[in-house]
Amino acid sequence: MLCQEIYRKVINCRGGWGIAGTPLHAAVSKGHLSCLQVLLAHGALVDCIDVKAQTPLFAAVRGKYLDCVLALLGAGANPNGNSSNNCSPVLTAAREGDVEILKELLKHGAEVNSRSKVLLWTSSARVSSGPLYLAAVYGHMECFKLLLLYGADPDYNGTDAKLLSSIKHPKTVLEMCLRHGCGVEYIQLLIDFGANVYLPTLIIEKSTKQNEAVELLLRERGNPKALMSQCRLAVRRYLKKINKIHCIDQLDMPTSLINFLQYKPAPATVL
Ligand SMILES: *[C@@H]1O[C@H](CO)[C@@H](O)[C@H](O)[C@H]1NC(C)=O
Ligand SMILES: *[C@@H]1O[C@H](CO)[C@@H](O)[C@H](O)[C@H]1NC(C)=O
Questions:
Q1: Residue 31 has pLDDT above 50, yes or no
Q2: 75-102 pLDDT per residue, tens
Q3: pLDDT-based confidence at residue 201 (cuts at 50, 70, 90)
């Protein structure tokens, strides 16, 4: 069909049933990699949007089609999707627990503290949800750790100033994890990645389910971090600031130090 001018000229036009999208959206939403490649080769725009401002990459992430995600990123798709969309590829992958897709998005420079424009209602507080928060409440530990490794802010409380101003007491991820009864391993990781352990004030409330996590937090408040951990946080914060957090493996330093910076356990010593 694309050999004929009459079809070629509508290659980027929206249509179809349901959410009107382009042919690229249609191909990607069913995971048809070869159709995607043909369309791109004939001039389909990689970041065209459907009526909900969703890009083909967003559709591929939602459909969990890793091969399509890779093809689109390889063709230069914006890893953050379109800013008019309420959601983002990173938020969707974090919520769905798609660790491989999430890794590809982050490797291609997606914003790890991706903002959400949607407010969530919780028991008593309105919070702005970010990828870290979604990974925690949906119980996706691997995604949670991956986000932190790529520099997610452990004190994330939403990034949209206008949104934040409409919330009386914005909660950090740590507070939300305590409220939702996320496992103690989530709390431990947040602490290891430098969350402010003095921020949550709610831990005295009866609504807090998990005593183990609260005990951990209280213990942490009494014990400052070891100097080594402080150094790791400082180095990682700096790398994040200069957009080089994904380059730790390339640093010119001993493997044991690189592993330490990446929170990898030291290999067992062979006697
Ligand atoms: C979002 O889509 C609109 C319309 O296609 C486009 O003009 C704009 O540049 C896109 N924004 C981003 C961040 O991709
Ligand atoms: C969000 O958290 C940061 C700490 O990381 C804090 O400095 C900031 O004041 C908080 N924002 C609001 C609106 O509470």
A1: yes
A2: 999 999 998 888 899 999 999 999 999 9
A3: low
1 CA to middle of ligand 2, Å? 54
CA 223 to ligand 2 centroid distance, Å: 23
Least confident of 2-16, 94-108, 149-163, 204-218: 204-218
Q: Ligand 1: which of 14, 50, 83, 90 to mutate, judged by most atoms within 8 Å of the beta carbon? A: 83
Residue 125 banded pLDDT, cuts 50, 70, 90 = very low
Within 10 angstroms of residue 118's Cβ, the number of other Cβ atoms is 11
Q: Is 157 in the pocket of ligand 2 (CB under 6 A)?
A: yes
* Cα(157) to centroid(ligand 2), Å: 7
The ligand 1 site (C-beta within 6 Å) comprises: 47, 49, 78, 82-84
Cβ of residue 129 lying under 6 Å from some atom of ligand 2:
no
Assigned CATH for 1-84? 1.25.40.20
- Ligand 2, residue 169: give the atom nearest the CA: 14
Integer Cα distance of 156 and 127 in angstroms: 11
Answer whether 164 contacts ligand 2 (Cβ < 6 A).
Answer: yes
Report the C-alpha gap between 269 and 227 in whole angstroms. 23
Query: pTM to 2 decimals?
Result: 0.87
The CATH fold of domain 86-221: 1.25.40
Q: Determine the pLDDT at residue 115.
A: 72
